[in-house]
């Protein structure tokens, strides 16, 4: 089972994503590294080292090795209000704690980057003061402070408000619903979060499946059905959308 998903800057389909299981490594750089086969990410920019770095997947996080002798890499948390870490030249195996990450490499004209997802971030259930044995991990670990949860809540809202067979909102309707609480929301950002939720909630096949299968049909329906079936989103989560409801009341 994969634990890390690498999303190249040019990626437009799920088949172009690179999924890594715990212990897998991915080399990246300007030219293909000999002996790495297809398990590499080529970044054809003259300011990127031939062998720029290496990603190593762990169970719930990943580490980055900076194989450049001169360039510092930056790993940003796109949802962290500027939160980032720096990976100095020559640093090996620096652990990255973010669920969403953007690896930024310096370049003369503008930085080049690619994204890394760690959808297996798990959170243990609350236990008593002296539990026996290992804590129980959540089957579906969702962070309610993340934007993807806002998107999921907006998708589930019509059915949580007493209309179990209500049609799901379109992406455009989700954007409009979230603008008061997420001013930068747009169609691409909402669709990105829907795609990410499909990975995080394991609606897509794992990397051990040679054929990635056809495009996932009814993705929104599958997400909402799963979320409501297992109470991943509940009615008491909807106050997070209250600002949007208040702002739209006069329309």
Oligomer: single chain
The level of helicity is 10-25%
Please report the number of helical segments: 5
What is the CA–CA distance across the termini? 47 Å
Uncertain parts: 206-216, 244-251
- Total number of distinct structural domains: 2
Largest sheet, strands/sense/barrel: 6 strands, antiparallel
Q: Which architecture of the largest domain would the CATH scheme give at its second level? A: Sandwich
Query: In the CATH scheme, what's the topology name of the largest domain?
Result: Tumour Suppressor Smad4
Give structural notes.
The chain has 251 residues and is an alpha+beta fold. It has 2 domains: 4-117, Sandwich (Tumour Suppressor Smad4), CATH 2.60.200.20; 147-247, no CATH class. Helices cover 21% and strands 19% of the residues. It has 5 helices and 11 strands, in the order E-E-E-E-E-E-E-E-E-E-E-H-H-H-H-H. The protein has helices at 147-160, 171-178, 187-200, 219-229, 242-247, and strands spanning 4-7, 18-20, 25-29, 40-42, 53-57, 62-66, 73-76, 84-87, 94-96, 100-105, 112-117. The protein has a 6-stranded antiparallel beta sheet, with no helix packed on it. The protein has a 5-stranded mixed beta sheet with strand order 4-3-5-6-9, with no helix packed on it. A hairpin with a 4-residue loop joins strand 5 (53-57) and strand 6 (62-66). Helix 1 packs across helix 3 (187-200) and helix 1 crosses helix 4 (219-229). The N and C termini lie far apart (47 Å). Mean pLDDT is 83; it is low at 206-216 and 244-251. It comes from Streptomyces pristinaespiralis (strain ATCC 25486 / DSM 40338 / CBS 914.69 / JCM 4507 / KCC S-0507 / NBRC 13074 / NRRL 2958 / 5647).
């Amino acid at each position: 089972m994969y634990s890390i998903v690498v999303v190249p800057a040019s990626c437009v389909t799920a088949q172009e994503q690179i999924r890594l299981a715990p212990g897998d490594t991915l080399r990246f750089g300007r030219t293909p590294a000999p002996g790495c086969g297809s398990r590499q990410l080529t970044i054809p920019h003259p300011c990127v080292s031939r062998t720029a770095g290496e990603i190593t997947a762990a169970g719930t996080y990943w580490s980055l090795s900076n194989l450049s002798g001169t360039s510092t890499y930056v790993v940003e948390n796109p949802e962290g209000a500027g939160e980032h870490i720096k990976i100095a030249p020559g640093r090996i195996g620096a652990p990255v704690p973010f669920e969403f990450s953007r690896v930024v490499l310096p370049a003369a004209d503008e930085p080049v980057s690619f994204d890394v997802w760690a959808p297996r971030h798990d959170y243990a259930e609350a236990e008593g003061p002296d539990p026996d044995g290992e804590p129980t991990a959540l089957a579906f670990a969702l962070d309610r402070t993340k934007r993807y949860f806002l998107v999921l809540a907006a998708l589930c809202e019509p059915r949580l408000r007493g209309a179990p067979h209500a049609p799901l909102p379109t992406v455009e309707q989700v954007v409009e619903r979230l603008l008061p609480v997420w001013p930068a929301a747009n169609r691409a950002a909402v669709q990105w979060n829907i795609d990410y939720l499909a990975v995080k909630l394991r609606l897509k096949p794992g990397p051990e499946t040679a054929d990635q299968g056809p495009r996932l049909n009814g993705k929104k329906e599958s997400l909402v059905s799963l979320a409501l079936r297992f109470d991943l989103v509940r009615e008491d989560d909807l106050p997070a959308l209250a600002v949007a409801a208040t702002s739209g009341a006069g329309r």
